[in-house]
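Dear Dr. V.,

Thank you for agreeing to look over these. As mentioned in my earlier message, I'm a first-year student in the group and I'm still getting used to reading structure tokens, so any feedback on how I've presented them would be very welcome. I ran two proteins. I've put each sequence directly above its structure. The first is here:
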Amino acid sequence: MTMTRITVHNDNLNIEIEGLHRLWAFKRRLTIPLAHVQHVSGNPDRIRRPPIGWSLGFWAPGLIVAGTFCSRGKREFWDIRHPTKAIIIDLANDRHTRLVLEVEDPQSVIDMITQARRGTSPS
């Protein structure tokens, strides 16, 4: 089962948090303007841990990270259990500086977001 479902509609990135992760992450959905997306990748080596500071969510190292984590002016939203199935979305001019999200097929979601940012429809 995926933890998040990501779609693109009306120049927005729509992220739906699924199942019990809604409780752990304290969120049901996020809507991010595509113009705020700076970079998207699926590099699990960049996924270490959420920022240490204040948080609204749940973090059990090695099991799950779900919620908003803030430190030193950075606000990140995480919802992952398996880093190899996660994507990283770096943002600018947004409430969040980074999203780290587990998806069913990371490469297809990366391609969808990349194509939407370029103004082309996914094939």
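The second protein is here, in the same arrangement:
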Amino acid sequence: MKTKNIMIVGVGGQGSLLASKLLGRLLLTKGYDIKVSEVHGMSQRGGSVVTYVRFGDKVYSPIIDKGEADYIVSFELLEAARWTEYLKPGGKIVVNTQQINPMPVITGAAEYPADLTEKMQAAGLDVDAFDALALAEQAGSAKAVNIVLMGHLSRNFDFTLEEWMEAIEQSVPSKFLELNKTAFTLGRNA
């Protein structure tokens, strides 16, 4: 199997690391060689965070270069736009339409860019944008955006719902298990 590349991008504190661990566990159980690389920016200050997940028969490097990502999963709209040059032709961006103001917007030095989804689509990108935050809140916690997005991404793979649920069971504490399973299902059906 040719190596597949997934970038998970967002803002510090949104749960991108849990999302990459969930995806990594599932891929390992399916027998893939997998490499995960977590790049932390100013994550504790709400800065940009990116995680690379690469899998296939044999993966030699954990890093995804520009133009190589099969999927970009973005927890926040501006972060999706920030990383588009990494998407390969024919790739897909799965994005939460939530907007989190970066520091230049908070301080008044800049404005949050308008119409980002439309601009990405006008550039010819395959953008699957939806309100993952609303679904996470429906599941019981705004913090479940990461699992909602993994549920939505899951529609692009041939893994069964049961296999995804097993990976969730291995990745989250038992007291949050039902909430996360609900969030995943809501995302998968969105």
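From my reading of the second output: The first helix runs from residue 16 to 29. Residues 4-189 form a domain with the Pyruvate-ferredoxin Oxidoreductase; domain 3 fold (CATH 3.40.920.10). Does that match how you would interpret it?

Kind regards,
E.
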